[in-house]
Automatic annotation (TrEMBL), chain A:
This is NCBP1 protein. GO terms for biological process: 7-methylguanosine mRNA capping; mRNA export from nucleus; nuclear-transcribed mRNA catabolic process, nonsense-mediated decay; regulation of mRNA processing; regulation of translation; regulatory ncRNA-mediated gene silencing; RNA splicing. It comes from Phainopepla nitens. The gene is Ncbp1. InterPro entries: ARM-type_fold, CBP80, MIF4G-like_typ-1, MIF4G-like_typ-2, MIF4G-like_typ-3. Keywords: Coiled coil, Cytoplasm, mRNA capping, mRNA processing, mRNA splicing, mRNA transport, Nonsense-mediated mRNA decay, Nucleus, RNA-mediated gene silencing, Translation regulation, Transport. The keyword DNA damage does not apply. Belongs to the NCBP1 family. The keyword Cell division does not apply. It is found in: Cytoplasm; Nucleus. GO terms for cellular component: cytoplasm; nuclear cap binding complex; nucleus. GO terms for molecular function: mRNA binding; RNA cap binding.
Automatic annotation (TrEMBL), chain B:
Residues 50-128 form the RRM domain. Its main location: nucleus. SUPFAM superfamilies: RNA-binding domain, RBD. It comes from the Eukaryota. This is Nuclear cap-binding protein subunit 2. PROSITE patterns: RRM. GO terms for molecular function: RNA cap binding. It is found in: Nucleus. Pfam families: RRM_1. Component of the cap-binding complex (CBC), which binds co-transcriptionally to the 5' cap of pre-mRNAs and is involved in various processes such as pre-mRNA splicing, translation regulation, nonsense-mediated mRNA decay, RNA-mediated gene silencing (RNAi) by microRNAs (miRNAs) and mRNA export. The CBC complex is involved in mRNA export from the nucleus, leading to the recruitment of the mRNA export machinery to the 5' end of mRNA and to mRNA export in a 5' to 3' direction through the nuclear pore. Belongs to the RRM NCBP2 family. Signal peptide: none annotated.
Amino acid sequence: SNSSLESNLEGLAGVLEADLPNYKSKILRILCTVARLLPEKLTVYTTLVGLLNARNYNFGGEFVEAMIRQLKECLKVNMYNEAVHLVRFLSDLVNCHVIAAPSMVAMFENFVGVTQEEDVPQVRCDWYMFAFLSSLPWVGKELYEKKDAEMDRLLSQTESYLKRRQKIHVPMLQVWTADKPHPQEEYLDCLWSQIQKLKKDRWQERHILRPYLAFDSVLCEALQHNLPPFTPPPHTEDSVYPMPRVIFRMFDYTDDPEGPVMPGSHSVERFVIEENLHCIIKSHWKERKTCAAQLLSYPGNNKIPLNYHIVEVIFAELFQLPSPPHIEVMYTTLLIELCKLQPGSLPQVLAQATEMLYMRLDTMNTTCVDRFINWFSHHLSNFQFRWSWEDWSDCLTQDLEKPKPKFVREVLEKCMRLSYHQRIIDIVPASFSVLSPANPVCIYKYGDESNRSLPGYTVALCLTIAIKNKASNDEIFSILKDVPNPNQDDDDGEGFTFNPLKIEVFVQTLLHLAAKSFSHSFSALAKFHEVFKTLAESDEGKLHVLRVVYEVWKNHPQMIAVLVDKMIRTQIVDCAAVANWIFSSELAHDFTRFYIWEILHSTIRKMNKHVLKIHKELEETKARLARQHKR
Amino acid sequence: RRAPPGTAAMSSGGTLSILRSDSYAELSQYRDQHFRGTRYDQERLLRKSCTLYVGNLSFYTTEEQIHELFGKSGDIKKVIMGLDKVKKTACGFCFVEYYARGDAENAMRYINGTRLDDRIIRTDWDAGFKEGRQYGRGRSGGQVRDEYRQDYDAGRGGYGKTVQCQ
């Protein structure tokens, strides 16, 4: 409650004031850290600093100096998110009578001045603009009251910058291509609209908790400090600025007609709430229970539809392009924790959100659809796959390649991976069988007597018996010698080792024998590694191995993915072969299936990690060589 | 004068330790009694391990399901299913080894305590798989916890072994 917060602050200020003679540097360090890392509690700590400044003017001065030093450090080492928190903290210190308003305006003049720099990346100017604009919800009123002419000039310079800056990144970052029901706005444009509306409302801002208001009589007696003139550090080769963003919106006031009204998309309240909720997640992402509790205890609960804001902010992060700020699975588990803490309300909001996301699949970015599929299937697996599938029967009348039926198919496939085939058949209505995944069984070409006329059939039988009798690699090779090469006629020169039939017979037989589990298959790959390497020595060989794997396991995409992964890691195939296989005409019909892109992304990730690893080894070796030469 | 609540965050014992808190990824109290080596050795291995022990699985949970779930926190190097020493069938636990410790940490943070096959599973750091550790250590061949428990668990063979023998 507010009164206990006030008495706590008063008490704490008293304790710290007494500790200043002995613990000043420690107290300074802690307060600076809080300013940098706890932006969601900003006004609580600025009030504390205000009270301390009122009791000890020198301390206030030293704190401001320490903050400026910290700000410069952050900017030097590309910690731009922390730097924004520091700027906001400084600006709120104006409200607490610690910093004089004109000196804050002067700092903002230098920030906005960055937009006049030549030959600098747009994202540099963007950051300084963002640091200025995003502080105005806290301090706009005070600054405008003291320096309206200067502020008007700054706002007009802002407007002209925003008009001339490039926005080609927007279509790349939008989650939906459609503008309805909510446009996906560029983040600075959205913030500018919000600040313009705030100015129109005469800077009246009612959402932010301002404990310092209760201490006005004490604080207005305090002497203020002037910020030293702040020159933004110049752009260097090593500067890396934050990427631009698009604001994700999925709810408005019409989505919760019973509850408190959701602040509009261009209200500054919406900005502050979203900023604070994102900050809470950033502070507590490692501790899911704490994170959920902190989100749900965000102040203003009965005045804003908090559950809707929380769900929107979480999906904003989950769907963020190019990548979410945190690992995807964190969001799944966080939502589950939130459902546990608010079982009477949050699950309904989440169901409503899911329904809305489903309705808008037609215009959703494919990467975001993939994340939606991953989230939804994993979420369902924690709730016995309970869902009102009949509500989505509309998708059954559509072409199977359309987004909605495709989404349902991929969700069911992912659900099956977390359970088993019959479970999925049981949980969906009978009408959904056309969307149900295939039973993930292995297809063995040589398994049926009726196939005995196929070339290689007898060798396959031989091979099966040999492998069951624990034959060595050499024995396998000699059995395979009997397999004719259908390419023999094309063979002009020596060393033509590619024999697709040999590959087919061997790989089909082995994978069939090892079909029981992943571990069985991995053991088989390891045991017969030499045979694989020989058969797949050429590029065509590698490609054919992948083709045969597909033929055997096309009903079990998960198995294909883990086999491909293992084969790359054991160098049976290489990344190039996987890419050629994925983009080959034989696989064109599966091109839009999720598992193909899982495999491709996984392959690229492995390649990246490998390149980084050997690059590091190269640098280390170079350094060692340099040291050797010195001696 | 009593310090008001909230001062704890500012106490000298670790500045703002609240923000650095990572309790889900910490070592638990459990130490494997069969570990060959000192306590110190064991803890050193636990702190750099990429391997997790996973418990409270159903006997019917497959390697494929485990791979799908645990794959959400990173690339899996190996899954080793826990087996009944006598029957050589799954007995409700496994080991999951990642290539990178960070991925195992994320599993501790986000997969531990959630459901697999409708059961809340539990993960803990493991000092590393050694041959023989894939077997249950209970007298009947399964896990010790299934020897003595009194409740009925359909996913873990019904009643505990001692109850079954009564």
